[in-house]
Amino acid sequence: MRTPFNHLIAVFIGGFLSASVLYAENVPQLVRDQLPGRQVKVSAISIGFGGDHEAKLKLALEHLHVAGKNGVDIACLPEEFAGTKAEPVPGPTTNAIAELAKQYHMYVICPIREQAGDREYNTAVLLDRQGNVAGYYRKVFVFWGEGVHCSTEGVKAFETDFGRISILTCFDLNYPELWQRADDLDADIVFWPSAYGGGSPLSAYAILYHYYIVPVGAGNIMDMMGKPCEPVEKPLPKQFIATLDLDRSLAHYDFNREKVDKMLKEHEGEIKVERQLSDEDLAPWWLFKATKPGVRTRDLLQEHKIETLREYQHRSRKQINEAREKGERI
């Protein structure tokens, strides 16, 4: 059967555009000390769960080339993106991904099915900028029929050169205690490699715990107020890149009004209020953002003895619980 001419043209153009994206001139990574706040470029590579190992690994590598050439600091692949055959860590898949992590000097979260002795886990492996295994997270709440063991290690936090991250996987979405644990560990970003999109529960967790969430099922990256991040670059279908400012800080109205007025007056032009209590949003919180290169809101808050909202909540929980145990009045 003859191939229609229009189809040939479409294939040629599609291939040309793909090649242009893959081999475009590199975009340098962010020079964070020359920017306001604490910025990081993330990529959600939403190429789906499972499939043929070789085909999916090849697709993942193509996406990682694009992420690297776009100056990404950390890229995340989906849950068991290259099939469900178990392998050790390090092993063939993590080794292949590690080469690109090192080539582009970027972190990569590489979820695989892990063979650990006589046990198998749904594991997300964190590779650092040198391609080394920097840590791993094993899925706590395994979905029915997965055929893997449940983690006994719980939620973890990983230190990177741009901030602290946690990883939760797919069915973990349904268990708020895991998301609170990521908050307890002071995560700036929670990456969520998944086989589906997640939706409104992710927005709720972002608002409640004041961290960014990078979902990889559908690439719907959201900020710490539970809103979609903007702008989002889409250099390839199913790849989503956003720049997040991890320095953006919330503070509660309690005990802080005079301090905040003083800080804003002394640092006019260096920091701005992005949101505050309004008729549309009744949460009594300020959201601050640095506007001058080299300035960080966290430093200014500390200088003016203003706790972040997370610090206030954590301290209050600890001290009120201690008073409860002692039978003391607050």
List keywords for this structure.
disordered N terminus; six-stranded mixed beta sheet; four-stranded mixed beta sheet; Nitrilase/N-carbamoyl-D-aminoacid amidohydrolase; globular; alpha/beta; 330 residues
SSE order and pairing:
Elements (H helix, E strand, L loop, with lengths): L4 H18 L16 E7 L7 H17 L4 E3 L15 H12 L3 E10 L2 E9 L5 E6 L19 E2 L4 E4 L8 H9 L4 E4 L7 H10 L2 E4 L23 E7 L3 E4 L4 H10 L4 E5 L9 E6 L6 H7 L5 H18 L4
Helix pairs in contact: 2-3
What does this 3D model show about the protein?
The protein is an alpha/beta fold and 330 residues long. The protein has 2 domains: 27-245, 4-Layer Sandwich (Nitrilase/N-carbamoyl-D-aminoacid amidohydrolase); 249-326. Helices cover 31% and strands 22% of the residues. The protein contains 8 helices and 13 strands. The chain has helices spanning 5-22, 53-69, 92-103, 176-184, 200-209, 257-266, 297-303, 309-326, and strands at residues 39-45, 74-76, 107-116, 119-127, 133-138, 158-159, 164-167, 189-192, 212-215, 239-245, 249-252, 271-275, 285-290. The protein has a 6-stranded mixed beta sheet. Strands 6-7-8-9 form a 4-stranded mixed beta sheet, covered by helices on one side. A 3-stranded antiparallel beta sheet has the order 11-13-12. Strand 8, helix 5 (200-209) and strand 9 (212-215) form a beta-alpha-beta unit. Helix 2 (53-69) packs parallel to helix 3. The termini are far apart. The model is unreliable at 1-24 (pLDDT under 50).
